[in-house]
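User: Teach me something about this protein's shape.
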Amino acid sequence: IDEFPALFVAACFAEGQTILTGAEELRVKESDRIQVMADGLLACGADVTPTPDGIIINGGHLKGGEVDSHGDHRIAMAFAMAGLCADGSITINDCANVDTSFPNFIEIASKTGLKVMSI
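Assistant: First, the predicted structure itself:
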């Protein structure tokens, strides 16, 4: 279930509609991952609708934008990867904690083309 934020990002670039249900556990992780991801994806131009136990995502693309990870390392990493495919840049606030689950994330992600700037 921890991988779902990354799957939400992938669904934004897929054709058609992705519907995830039965994932209410996401609402009680380090953040309410369903709502935080929905808010961030909406800020980046996605067509998403959160539901009590999941999310509905209509595929297309992401424009870029500014998102808040709410201190959740998996949210921060998901939006970092979204930045590789979005039409514009994505600024992620409150993401210093990615070392929690992936100590070398910034170093490895930068090798894929991710541009990281600490503000």
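Now, about its shape. Residues 4-110 form a domain with the UDP-n-acetylglucosamine1-carboxyvinyl-transferase; Chain fold (CATH 3.65.10.10). The radius of gyration is 13 Å. If you'd like, I can walk through any region in more detail.
User: That's plenty for now, thanks!
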